[in-house]
Amino acid sequence: MTAAMDELLGILDLEQLEHNLYRGRSPKLDWQRIFGGQTIAQALVAAQRTVEPERHVHSLHGYFMRPGDTKVPIIYEVDRIRDGGSFTTRRVVAIQHGQAIFSLEASFQQDEVGLEHQVPMPQDVPAPDTLLSQRELLGKFGEAVPDGIKRYWERDRPIEMKPVMLKHYTSREKLEPKQFHRSHPLDDWMLYTQDSPSTQGSRGFTRGSLFARDGTLIASVAQEGLIRLKRPPAE
């Protein structure tokens, strides 16, 4: 196990202060604010520690309210909203300097047998063994990579990442947008498209996209719901 992985596991191993109260730390790096993924992960760990081990998280939703301070610990307060027969629901608030910086709601469920399907993985993506690592990319295209990306790629990390589209890191061109939603007066016909990329564990996941008449993507939505096969009544 690498030192970077040891550090990651240490950061995720929260200290329990009281019932439903945990404390987490940040890595000793020169970041101006806490990395959002760290806060999400620690909040999820805090929630999971109040849930039965056989129930696993299947969905979560989070909001960031304030930037996190890397120099002080984060307090995670867990609210045990519901312990139901099928699902367990938890709310977690991350607190620094007496104020909430992040909130998370998560739902947990024991594994169930049910309908299963998923959309296929894209076939036009190169295999990971054919891609260059971030350090190899720096050696080959270092002059074209911005300084901020260079510093990010030069650090030892617990998980290796290999970019498929290097152009997103080196180009100053206006590339095709993949995540920008827009406001709209909502005064004309709109197209709502929907798909369901995965169903498993008696849960169905659906996504929807709302388009304006001119093709502009206005909004995206996602929902996960409980779907169980109808069983005959017991004799």
What tags apply to this protein structure?
235 residues, alpha+beta, Thiol Ester Dehydrase, Chain A, 3 domains, six-stranded antiparallel β-sheet, four-stranded antiparallel β-sheet, 5 helices, globular
Description of the molecule:
The protein is of the alpha+beta class. 18% of the residues lie in helices and 35% in strands. The protein is built from 5 helices and 10 strands; from the N terminus they run αββαβββββαααβββ. The strands form 2 sheets. A 6-stranded antiparallel sheet has the order 1-2-4-5-6-3, with helices on one face. It has a 4-stranded antiparallel sheet with strand order 7-8-9-10, with no helix packed on it. β8 and β9 form a beta hairpin. The mean pLDDT is 88.
Write the layout of secondary structure elements.
Layout: H1 3-12, E1 15-18, E2 21-24, H2 36-48, E3 55-64, E4 74-83, E5 87-96, E6 99-110, E7 117-118, H3 134-141, H4 147-154, H5 167-170, E8 190-200, E9 203-212, E10 217-226
Antiparallel strand pairs: 1-2, 2-4, 3-6, 4-5, 5-6, 7-8, 8-9, 9-10
